[in-house]
């Protein structure tokens, strides 16, 4: 089912200056915004009337250049369409337009913001409200500016690793359940409202991280950059030792890099996750230590044995 946004809810939550409202609500299905310059000039061939309509400085100046009769005629034709919301920016206010909005049963909002900034603000709100969302079992932490989603079986130590990261100065976003939204080409995670800032540690119970460690230890939302799967060490399983094997996991149609971290006594998982975050940042910036090492090794082998040029440390 397609997500929609309630106009009345948006006006209330964004604290918009609504100068004419309606009893019956309207729905917004797209974050695209229309500036109706062409329509006010008389062209309605491809009029996206299902979008929020924003009259900025250019459109308002054009309307004010017309006689009262011409302006009323053009606005009446425009307002006869079923518009979700009409907004006038840059502090412009007009009693004639207000009267026409009332007679045509349209929501009307005034804003003092510049048009571009207002459009950006409205689009961000709608994108957030209509974004596809899933709830994932795991822990989301902000480590040195990178969002790491910790996944793994229950009891493997995800919360304990996150707690150690918090002690080391990093931040908790969500424990146990992570709400993940796809916004454009990013995945943004947050905590359900009921458990925000809370963490469960077996044997102790629920902890209020914000109260224990301060406001700097928590964060409301975070873009997810990497997934770390924690699992109990299996002696029979091969684990990548060089970092040449690249794994990915797909969430809401977006592929994220994935690392598998085996857990056993003596391994400091928090330190490993810190290094994973810094290593991922290096990869994004174009440097991969494993590939660099592999190239140096192949070069060394080639210089000592010409027949070794085709050797590779990665099995096909």
Question: Could you explain how this protein is built, in words?
Answer:
- The protein is α/β, with parallel strands linked by helices.
- It has ten helices and 18 strands.
- It has helices at 7-13, 37-40, 57-64, 68-79, 95-103, 115-130, 158-167, 209-213, 269-284, 289-304, and strands spanning 5-6, 17-20, 27-28, 33-34, 52-55, 86-88, 108-110, 133-137, 139-143, 146-152, 171-174, 177-183, 186-190, 198-201, 205-208, 221-232, 247-251, 254-263.
- Strands 8, 9, 10, 11, 12, 13, 16, 17 and 18 form a nine-stranded mixed β-sheet that branches. The protein has a five-stranded mixed β-sheet with strand order 2-7-6-5-4. Strands 1-3 form a two-stranded antiparallel ribbon.
- A hairpin with a 2-residue loop joins strand 9 (139-143) and strand 10 (146-152).
- Helix 4 runs parallel beside helix 5 (95-103) and helix 7 (158-167) crosses helix 9 (269-284).
- The longest helix is centred in the middle third of the chain and has 16 residues, at 115-130.
- The chain is elongated and about 85 Å long.
- The relative contact order is 0.10.
Short précis:
The protein is α/β, with parallel strands linked by helices and 316 residues long. 33% of the residues lie in helices and 28% in strands. The chain contains 10 helices and 18 strands.
């Amino acid at each position: 089912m397609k997500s929609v946004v309630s106009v009345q809810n948006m006006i209330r939550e964004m604290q918009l200056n609504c100068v004419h409202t309606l009893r019956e609500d309207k729905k917004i299905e797209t974050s695209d915004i229309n500036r109706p310059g062409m329509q006010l000039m008389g062209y309605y061939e491809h009029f996206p009337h299902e979008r929020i309509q924003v009259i900025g400085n250019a459109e308002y100046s054009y309307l004010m250049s017309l006689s009262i009769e011409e302006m009323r005629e053009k606005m009446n034709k425009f307002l006869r369409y079923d518009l979700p919301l009409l907004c006038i920016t840059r502090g412009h206010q007009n009693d004639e337009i207000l009267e026409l909005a009332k007679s045509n049963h349209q929501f009307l909002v005034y804003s003092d913001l510049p048009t571009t900034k207002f459009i950006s603000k409205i689009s961000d709100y709608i994108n957030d409200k209509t974004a596809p969302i899933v709830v994932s079992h795991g822990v989301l932490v902000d480590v040195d500016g990178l969002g790491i989603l910790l996944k793994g079986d229950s009891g493997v130590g995800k919360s304990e690793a996150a707690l150690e990261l918090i002690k080391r100065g990093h931040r908790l976003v969500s424990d146990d359940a992570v709400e993940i939204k796809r916004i454009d080409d990013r995945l943004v995670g947050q905590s359900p409202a009921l458990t925000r800032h809370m963490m469960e540690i077996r044997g102790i119970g629920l902890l209020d991280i914000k109260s224990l460690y301060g406001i700097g230890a928590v964060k409301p939302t975070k873009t997810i950059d990497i997934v770390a799967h924690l699992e109990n060490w299996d002696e029979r399983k091969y684990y990548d030792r060089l970092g040449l094997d690249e794994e990915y996991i797909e969430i809401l149609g977006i592929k994220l890099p994935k690392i598998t971290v085996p857990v056993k006594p003596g391994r400091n998982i928090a330190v490993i996750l810190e290094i994973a975050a810094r290593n991922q940042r290096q990869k994004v910036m174009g440097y991969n230590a494993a590939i660099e090492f592999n190239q140096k090794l192949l070069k060394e082998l080639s210089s000592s044995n010409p027949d070794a040029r085709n050797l590779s440390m990665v099995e096909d």
